[in-house]
Design brief:
Layout (H helix, E strand, L loop, with lengths): L5 E5 L7 H14 L5 E5 L14 H8 L3 E5 L2 E6 L1 H9 L50 E4 L15 H8 L5 E4 L1 H12 L24 H12 L13 H18 L6 H24 L23 E4 L5 E4 L5 E2 L5 E2 L1
Parallel strand pairs: 1-2
Antiparallel strand pairs: 3-4, 5-6, 7-8, 9-10
Helix pairs in contact: 6-7, 6-8, 7-8
Length: 336
């Protein structure tokens, strides 16, 4: 590795275990005496603690000669770690490192000293998950281990009941996203209109169940994770990947199925296949590079493709340009 004069590390120890973090610290500490200026950056407030539970302040004290606090791109305070300790700790800990939405956050909303009165909302989280928001509770039925419904438990007005019950026994939840959607759709349709389930892949295979969700996920990841197929796209790379995903979809439609808790995993795997096919199908239709869409064989923008692409379909995938709606303005001109 070369020896740069300036090395910028953006959260180098985020998401690593204690042992690896210590090894990274040793490497960083060895760079500075060798003549490299090292700049460590951290996101504000919402990332005050690293994944192992060690305060970021400890990392700053170990590695940094000077610490600067920035707001809107401007330095608002600077000094040694001890002199800034009170400022850093003032950001609070209203989420208690509850990993809301998958993030290893500590302040919940990331704003200085705000949200403290709402910190109790971060206390209840589904077991084994990182989600502590509660709006989704509105689409669930809560019940005890014996199967009896916990009446009154809900997102609004029912969280206290859930908390009190959790003091003495576990609380289970069954989510009814499909049933809720069907009820909503029936309410918007004609009175008495029949509603029937339409979900197929992973739910209702056309043949014998002989495909597992793990092998489906592996098959999808094999086509969508490699950089040369997804990020560094060239027409000759997404095309075979799409063909492989079409074959996986056919296998899923015919043989992927499950029951109980595994049913969710089967549907999740089926959704991954569907999304991968939409992704590559649309990417092949956009024969240019635009924004985050990079085509090695089409490196420039095409003015004629200044539109969004709509894509969909399950057994037969389609992609088409979105129709541009034009409105007449007061001056008599037209705007897209």
């Amino acid at each position: 590795m070369h020896r740069p004069r300036l090395l910028i590390l953006d959260e180098p120890t985020a998401g690593v275990d204690v042992e690896l973090r210590s090894e990274i610290w040793l490497v960083v500490k060895g760079l500075n005496p060798a003549g490299t200026t090292v700049l460590l950056t951290r996101l504000p407030h919402s990332r005050l603690r690293s994944s192992g539970g060690t305060p970021i302040l400890e990392e700053a004290e170990t590695l940094c000669d000077e610490i600067a606090l920035l707001r809107a791109g401007r330095i608002v305070d600077r000094g040694s770690a001890p002199s800034l300790r009170a400022v850093v700790l003032a950001a609070g800990a209203c989420a208690f490192q509850s990993k809301t939405l998958g993030c290893d956050v500590n302040t919940g909303d990331g704003a200085l000293l705000s949200g403290m009165e709402f910190s109790n909302a971060y206390a209840i989280a589904p077991k084994g998950t990182s989600l502590t928001k509660t709006a989704y509770y509105s689409w669930a039925t809560f019940y005890r281990a014996d199967g009896s419904v916990l009446e009154g438990a809900a997102s609004k007005g029912g969280r206290s009941l859930i908390a009190r019950t959790l003091l003495t026994e576990p609380v289970y939840a069954r989510f009814w996203a499909g049933r809720g959607a069907a009820t909503f759709a029936a309410g918007r349709g004609r009175p008495g209109r029949a509603v029937r389930p339409v979900g197929t892949a992973g739910l209702r295979p056309t043949g014998a169940v002989n495909v597992g969700h793990r092998e489906v996920v592996t098959a999808v990841q094999r086509e969508v994770l490699p950089y040369d197929r997804n990020y560094l796209q060239h027409a000759d790379r997404p095309e075979p990947a799409l063909r492989s995903l079409h074959e996986t979809w056919s296998a899923v439609r015919e043989g992927l199925g499950a029951s109980g808790e595994a049913l969710f995993r089967a549907r999740e795997a089926a959704a991954m296949v569907a999304h991968g096919r939409w992704m590559y199908h649309a990417a092949l239709q956009r024969t240019e590079s635009r924004g985050m869409h990079k085509r090695a064989d089409r490196p420039v923008q095409d003015p004629a493709q200044h539109h969004r692409l709509l894509t969909g379909g399950l057994d037969e995938v389609w992609s088409r340009p979105e129709a541009v709606q034009r409105q007449t303005v007061a001056s008599g001109g037209r705007v897209a």
